[in-house]
């Protein structure tokens, strides 16, 4: 192996990257980790200037040559490393040979609400990383203008959230907001109706008014939205359950709601 | 502990239940396992006669008294067991103290297609247990008449599939079919249009004809539907992607498609 290849899994540099698996270390360093070719490709395409370092093992150098070239062209610091170092960089079962260290990409709540058309998504107290990431991916697919996470939600830069977004983290504005009450107020000040999605809602989704600019408020996966948030919303909407199922999970219900928004505005656009 | 409590995790009876984690043992015994209060509650509500045995530990006996009473009233064989036995019965990280041994509930393809209204779902080569179970749960919620799994799909009675259905396994007819070609033909013979859901489809979901009886054909999570299946379908439909996301995952795309079916027929029903 050439002397420029990192081979010591206990090197300080390697430990510093691995530490970014913890929220406290991410906040201190103002960096987070993107693991695997899908995420690395998307950050290089959409936000290359936020990437500070790219770690690549031998197999990935060969398999993902164009990605590595892209990083080189963007003047990103490249580190060839052994598979032992790759395994030490991130806490995943099957490291995929590419790890990028990146700067945060979240925007202010004000910027997230700058576009006053269409719909945005507010995540209130969403704790499960897979759910949060999946909702961000769906929001991207359904054409949301932005996603805003309340302060009580899971950390956007948690590696599982980053992975579950499947690259959507870099596709639309995402803001890290304060408490839910403030976020609802901020949406309404900018002319958005706030629709709380909740299994206890009285308005069925097909009957909800999605014609103007609006914000979908999605609650915690286990206990939904609290009474105060529901009372503050302009309407509380539930996805109809036609069979005997008790409910849909958070990501599914959120996706159905967002596609209803997308569908009705696209129907309008084409008619 | 009373002498009627099972305390030996290595007893033959305990090993026989644990073996049902493997497909071959399930097929030999014609039994499968339902783990945890949600699944046990739903099978006791919707198909009590298919439950042969219920294993309960001390904590669950107290917490889920009404469920245990329900099982007793249905003449199901009750086995009190120690927490060590409970942990040995199933291969889950956090046993929840209730394990039922049940007979299969799948129906024939003919029976699944007996109701010729609304929509059904065909799962072709769906391999991931969580995806299969989640689609069954969504199909229930969206009001599908039935779900049919092709022979190349994951086993319906895989413990992870059973858990992911969140009880919907017992809420609507589910059939285990042969190959996809036969299933498509069977649907069309009974007057159903077959709509293949595929990211490569030319018809956008909002433009798809969902007015008559139809069948949604959903492909594998990794490589979608093969050319032959797409060619055999009456239409190939894609969920519109409005942002930069590459795709939605299988369960999300399937749920959006099924709710489009439900929504348009409910709009008709109420207008």
Automatic annotation (TrEMBL), chains A, B:
Swiss-Prot/TrEMBL keywords: Methyltransferase, Transferase
Gene Ontology BP annotations: methylation
Ranges of residues in domain RNA 2-O ribose methyltransferase substrate binding: 33-108
Superkingdom, taxonomy of origin: Bacteria
Gene Ontology terms, MF aspect: methyltransferase activity
InterPro entries assigned: Alpha/beta_knot_MTases, MRM3-like_sub_bind, Ribosomal_eL30-like_sf, rRNA_Methyltransferase, SpoU_MeTrfase, SpoU_subst-bd, tRNA_m1G_MTases_N
Family: Belongs to the class IV-like SAM-binding methyltransferase superfamily. RNA methyltransferase TrmH family.
Matching PANTHER family: RRNA METHYLTRANSFERASE 3, RRNA METHYLTRANSFERASE 3, MITOCHONDRIAL
Entry protein name: TrmH family RNA methyltransferase
């Amino acid at each position: 192996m050439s002397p420029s290849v990192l081979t010591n899994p206990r090197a300080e540099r390697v430990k510093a990257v691995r530490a970014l698996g913890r929220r406290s270390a991410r906040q201190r360093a103002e960096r987070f980790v993107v693991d695997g070719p899908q995420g690395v490709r998307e950050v290089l395409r959409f936000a290359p200037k936020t990437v500070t370092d790219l770690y690549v093992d031998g197999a990935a150098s060969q398999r993902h040559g164009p990605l590595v070239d892209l990083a080189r062209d963007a003047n990103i610091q490249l580190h060839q490393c052994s598979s032992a170092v790759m395994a030490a960089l991130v806490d995943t079962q099957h490291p995929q040979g590419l790890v990028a260290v990146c700067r945060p990409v979240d925007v202010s709540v004000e910027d997230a609400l700058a576009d006053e058309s269409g719909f945005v998504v507010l995540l209130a107290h969403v704790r499960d990383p897979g759910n949060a990431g999946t909702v961000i991916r769906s929001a991207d697919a359904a054409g949301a203008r932005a996603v805003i996470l309340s302060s009580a939600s899971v950390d956007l830069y948690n590696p599982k959230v980053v992975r579950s977004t499947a690259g959507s983290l870099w596709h639309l504005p995402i803001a890290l907001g304060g408490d839910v009450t403030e976020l609802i107020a901020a949406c309404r000040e900018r002319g958005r109706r706030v629709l709380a999605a909740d299994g206890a809602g009285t308005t069925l989704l097909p009957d909800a008014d999605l014609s103007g600019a609006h914000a979908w408020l999605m609650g915690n996966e286990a206990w939904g939205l609290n009474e105060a948030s529901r009372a503050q919303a302009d309407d509380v909407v539930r996805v109809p359950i036609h069979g005997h199922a008790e409910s849909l999970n958070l990501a599914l219900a959120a996706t159905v709601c967002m596609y209803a928004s997308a569908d009705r505005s696209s129907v309008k656009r084409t008619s």
